[in-house]
Design a protein that fits this description.
The chain has about 240 residues and is mostly helical. A two-stranded antiparallel ribbon has the order 1-2. It has helices at about 5-25, 40-70, 70-105, 110-130, 135-150, 155-165, 185-235, and strands at about 175, 180. A hairpin with a 5-residue loop joins β1 and β2 (about 180). α2 runs antiparallel to α3.
Length: about 240
């Protein structure tokens, strides 16, 4: 795929920031209780953040499509949904690797874990709907509505540890009320860099996937236009 300057610069910035985050994460001091397991936080938390960002993007781009009726926004909504689903799986896997040595099991039906698993159903359904509707305009409208409603998952999942207390720890970064970071300050700086790296990664993947989606759409339209004359010829013969 031919890359433009923006994509190249964004990709380079993403790679550089990820490398810095990895270096800081590996050099961070060990936790008194969890030892080196604490380093999973530098991947698990940013991965969860990226999934939130992607699902929020799906809803936002869907809303923009409903307002402007531009297929560009629909393609970005689809791309963002795919990215969100991918990184939700990564969040669950990372959480399971962290849970086994700390909780003694890979999985419990805790509120945070359960709502995270349900997001796979919601956004898996979102992507499935897109494959079941042939008409592009109707597909975009229906998908936009589902994507907007699906963004309710983000605040519910974030607040799940407060509303339904379970074994999962409360938020590492509390955004409501007085802002508070519940970890050692040194971990906060590493986590900030890692979160920035994953944010850049989201925008890089979104841009690349959006370009690929545009090319796929153009190819489908060409095939449809090429097939139309042949269909009219067959109809005339019949």
């Amino acid at each position: 795929m031919k890359r433009d300057l923006t994509t190249t610069v964004l990709g380079a910035a993403t790679l550089l920031t990820l490398l810095v985050a990895v270096g800081l994460g590996l050099s961070a001091p060990l936790d008194l209780n969890q030892g080196s397991l604490v380093r999973l936080m530098f991947v698990h938390v940013p991965t969860a953040w990226l999934s939130y960002l992607a699902y929020g993007g799906t809803g936002l781009f869907g809303l923009l499509y409903l307002i402007q009726r531009r297929r560009h926004w629909d393609r970005l909504a689809m791309a963002s949904g795919e990215i969100g689903l991918l990184f939700t799986v990564a969040t669950i896997v990372g959480g399971m690797l962290w849970a086994k040595p700390t909780w003694g099991t890979y999985w419990v039906w805790d509120a945070r874990l359960t709502t995270t698993a349900l997001s796979l159903v919601v956004y898996g359904g979102y992507l499935l709907i897109r494959t079941l509707i042939d008409d592009p305009e109707r597909r975009a409208r229906v998908s936009a509505v589902v994507g907007i409603v699906g963004t309710l998952y983000v605040p519910v999942n974030y607040m799940a540890v407060e509303w339904w207390r379970g074994v999962h720890q409360t938020q590492t970064l509390k955004l409501l009320g007085k802002l508070r970071f519940d970890a050692a300050p040194i971990y906060g700086w590493v986590l900030l860099i890692a979160t920035l790296a994953f944010t850049l990664l989201y925008f890089y993947l979104l841009r690349v996937r959006g370009v690929l989606a545009a090319r796929e759409e153009a190819r489908e339209e060409r095939e449809l236009m090429e097939g139309a004359p042949a269909a009219r010829v067959e109809a005339a013969r019949g």
